[in-house]
Amino acid sequence: DAGVIQSPRHEVTEMGQEVTLRCKPISGHDYLFWYRQTMMRGLELLIYFNNNVPIDDSGMPEDRFSAKMPNASFSTLKIQPSEPRDSAVYFCASSLGGFSYGYTFGSGTRLTVV
Amino acid sequence: AQSVTQLGSHVSVSEGALVLLRCNYSSSVPPYLFWYVQYPNQGLQLLLKYTSAATLVKGINGFEAEFKKSETSFHLTKPSAHMSDAAEYFCAVSSGTYKYIFGTGTRLKVLA
To answer: Judging by beta carbons within 10 Å of its beta carbon (0-12, 13-18, 19+), is residue A87 exposed, middle or buried?
Structure first.
């Protein structure tokens, strides 16, 4: 299995532009999570899906952030418009289900908004 | 409410020495506990997990952790550090939900 695949690995964009981050979970995993990692705030859960349905988006910081999962093998996290304070590493993770299973993380997307 | 505290944001050990990374948790119900490792420019990788079975949990790369309910701790240890262990380590807790709470991380440096 190729693991959780995220793209792009790095993204540099100008303030005000739309940014779309992509994630392909491990086949058969029915939970998908989006995390943001910054030096100041550590790892923050933004949103998670179960069977392609958003379950909890309470961590999404603002309406500028949106996430979708149109099918079991693809999810996007979109920021529109982007701001410098959105600069962070965004991780996608997937899980087979069950609280004890643990997550498998992707390699992350490093976003820089200038 | 659940929370995780990792004591020491940076830990340095000599190669061959004992590694001890500390994690204390708070949970209103029996927790699930995890240790993850993050190498530079990579995602987090699961090292080991506690799921209410054996209190001493063995993981990959020679790491192990012991669940101590009385101390609300889940410290990570390795008898002999190797240069390749240099990374950032995260403790995480789940109180029976999918919303894992991660600690702030401990960066391990291994000195030659």
So the answer is: middle
